[in-house]
Automatic annotation (TrEMBL):
Gene3D superfamilies, per the entry: Glycoside hydrolase family 3 C-terminal domain (3.40.50.1700), Glycoside hydrolase, family 3, N-terminal domain (3.20.20.300)
Swiss-Prot/TrEMBL catalytic activity: Hydrolysis of terminal, non-reducing beta-D-glucosyl residues with release of beta-D-glucose
Listed name of the protein: beta-glucosidase
Organism in which the protein naturally occurs: Sphingomonas bisphenolicum
Signal peptide range in chain numbering: 1-21
EC number: 3.2.1.21
């Protein structure tokens, strides 16, 4: 194993090249002392290298390792603005606070992102011990973009949201996606994916539904495991050329009443039973079996189940020793990194708990210390560490950790245990030997035509055909078509003639999406999340467009589902009904015209009414009254029908 690691890391050095690569003597003098230390020696076993470096670290340097900060951009400490990192602010985080793990939220061209990440590594190399930076990201390869949870752009290949993979149910497709995403991330200097979501999607109104693999625990487990396999480049743990995954959110996150999300004060509680809790845990099994490098605990306070016969303490999972040390590390035998979700040690002031129009919640007022709201920061850090947290997401001040040690609330041995896990992962990924990337190669690798062609194919096949009355699909070339929310150029490229009046058309195509409400407009996340209703109503503009079209011609409706839509109001007006989970207009039109076949099946059930939604249990999958369409629904047309 030592020789395999040595050879793999050596190959990675050759492949990446770039500034700061090892000297002709074969090593990097990271602590600038002019001699080869054991931690700098690529030939030494990883445990030996970790031990050597740990002995050289001060307590302050160790404390900094337990923070997973944010790479700041000019004018934004949380990195949401600008085209470059703030070099001065980043240097202070590296040198003064000894932080070496960061999320990047920068969205720029691949070569520019590679250059910016190389610049961060150059700053890290100049620090006292030269500890390289681990750079993480929220998902970047999907259609859905929610500030603080996911993003799009930057040239990465564009795939369906994970619900699309769930609609196909094919582990090899997920693994292939992960393998391509792995190469793209590493090409720009990203080492950690804050994904996948192995959350079980049980509450239909939940805003995080689209990033899950659906409502069946066994399927979620299988597909999340394949995701880990693809990103980490195998099931034996992250490889030197792999991207570390952080599977989330352990556990019960998808069970929140009314779908209110745990980022928000009003969504901090999730009641479950012993039986439903077991289902939510089951969804994580294969990602843990695939040795996901990291696990992220949920924000929410789980109420109801018992662990080892004892009631769960009413604190969020990031502070909950029963859920982390007892259940995850003990019962499940997990040995990787536990990274808290963001801002759990921050205060939640009035603008966090009950913002209003005059005092809306801003990033400065984001805090998620659920169950620990009245504690001070030192106590929160100590509680999290003693529960089992290794790194605190979104934290950038090590002072409370040092204070906790000084007060005897946390032992230095406990700190060392977490530092070892952080360092080991950096060594496993080859970052100490060469963290730099080839900026020109990044432009060639990220979003290359071959990768995008595979992504486009999945955009097509992952669609679900729910209805096809009178063999409405496929539509023959040359037909006159009326469009709503569809690019006319894409329809012409598909061989159709676009008309401006449905009365002049042969067929109509309307794209729409699951309805939603903004129920909490003054909360930072609530203002950005899709909450509330799932049903189409007569005064919705898209419903009016469907009614206008269906009065004249057979109408095809394609519904983008980030949450389970109630189709009752629009179904009588549609001759064909497609469901998409992230698909371009071209991908939809290829299915409409028979150039491609929709092969997906619903990864969750569709309710008949909001009354049915309200009657179901938020912690149980696909329960409640009989659905309009059950999980697994979907028509696959024969090739001869195209």
């Amino acid at each position: 194993m030592v020789m395999r690691r040595f050879m793999a890391a050596s190959l990675l050095v050759v492949a990446l090249g770039g500034a700061g690569a090892p000297s002709s003597s074969g090593w990097r003098d990271l602590n600038h002392n002019g001699r080869l230390d054991r931690y700098e020696d690529i030939r030494a076993p990883i445990d030996t290298r970790v031990d050597d470096l740990l002995k050289q670290m001060t307590l302050a340097e160790k404390a900094g390792m337990l923070l997973h900060g944010t790479l700041p951009t000019p004018g934004s400490a949380i990195g949401f603005a600008g085209k470059t990192y703030d070099a001065d602010a980043t240097a202070k985080l590296l040198n003064d606070r000894h932080i070496s793990s960061f999320i990047s939220r920068l969205v720029v061209a691949p070569s520019d992102l590679a250059a910016q990440n190389n610049a961060v590594q150059k700053l890290a190399e100049a620090s006292r011990l030269g500890i390289p930076a681990t750079i993480s990201t929220d998902p970047r390869h999907h259609f859905q973009a929610t500030l603080g949870a996911s993003t799009t752009g930057g040239g990465f290949s564009l795939w369906p949201d994970t619900l699309g993979f769930a609609a196909l149910g094919d582990t090899e497709t997920v693994r292939r996606f992960g393998d391509i995403a792995r190469r793209e991330y590493r090409a720009v200097g990203i080492h950690m994916a804050l994904s996948p979501q192995a959350d079980l999607a049980t509450e239909p109104r939940w805003p995080r539904f689209a990033a899950t693999f659906g409502s069946d625990p066994a399927e979620v487990s299988r597909l999340a495991g394949a995701y880990v396999d693809g990103f980490q480049h195998g099931r034996a743990g992250v490889q030197p050329d792999g991207v570390a995954t952080v599977v989330k959110h352990w556990v019960g996150y998808g069970a929140e009443p009314e779908g209110f999300d745990g980022h928000n004060y009003y969504g901090r509680n999730a009641p479950l039973t012993d039986a439903s809790f077991a289902r939510h845990i089951r969804a994580f099994d294969d990602s843990l079996a695939a040795h996901s490098a990291g696990v992220m605990p949920t924000y929410v306070i789980v109420h109801g189940p018992r662990i080892a016969g004892q009631p769960i303490e009413p604190v969020a999972a990031g502070f909950n020793k029963q859920m982390l040390t007892g259940l995850l590390r003990g019962e499940k035998g997990y040995r990787g990194l536990i990274v808290s979700d963001w801002s759990i040690t921050n205060d939640c002031p009035q603008a966090c708990m009950a913002p209003d129009a005059a005092n809306p919640q801003t990033p400065a007022a984001i805090g998620t210390p659920w169950g620990m709201e009245t504690a001070d920061k030192t106590t929160r850090f100590a509680k999290g560490l003693n529960a089992g947290i290794d790194q605190f997401g979104g934290a950038n001040d090590p002072a409370p950790i040092l204070d906790a040690v000084a007060k005897g609330l946390v032992s230095e041995k406990r700190i060392d245990d977490s530092v070892r896990r952080v360092l080991r992962l950096k060594f496993e990924q080859g970052l100490f030997d060469n963290p730099y990337v080839d900026e020109a190669a990044a432009a060639r690798i990220v979003g290359n035509p071959q990768a995008q062609a595979q992504a486009d194919a999945v955009q097509r096949t992952s669609q679900v055909l729910l209805r096809n009355d009178g063999a409405t699909l496929p539509v023959a070339p040359g037909k006159r078509i009326w469009l709503h929310n569809v690019d006319a150029a894409a329809a012409r490229a598909a061989g159709l003639t676009v008309v401006e009046d449905p009365a002049q058309a042969d067929i109509a195509l309307v794209r729409t999406a699951t309805p939603f409400e903004t129920l909490h407009p003054h909360h930072f996340f609530g203002a950005r999340q899709h909450e509330g209703r799932l049903d189409f109503r007569a005064d919705d503009k898209d419903v009016q467009a469907i009614a206008r079209a269906s009065a004249h011609v057979p109408t095809i409706v394609a519904v983008e589902m980030d949450r389970p839509a109630i189709l009752t109001a629009i179904e009588p007006m549609a001759k064909a009904m497609l469901v998409t989970f992230g698909a371009s207009d071209a991908a939809v039109l290829d299915v409409v015209t028979g150039r491609a076949v929709a092969k997906g099946h619903m990864p969750f059930s569709l309710p008949r009414s909001m009354a049915d939604v309200e009657a179901q249990s938020p912690d149980l999958p696909d329960d409640g009254p009989a659905p309009a369409y059950p999980r697994g629904a979907g028509i696959v047309l024969k090739a001869s029908a195209q």
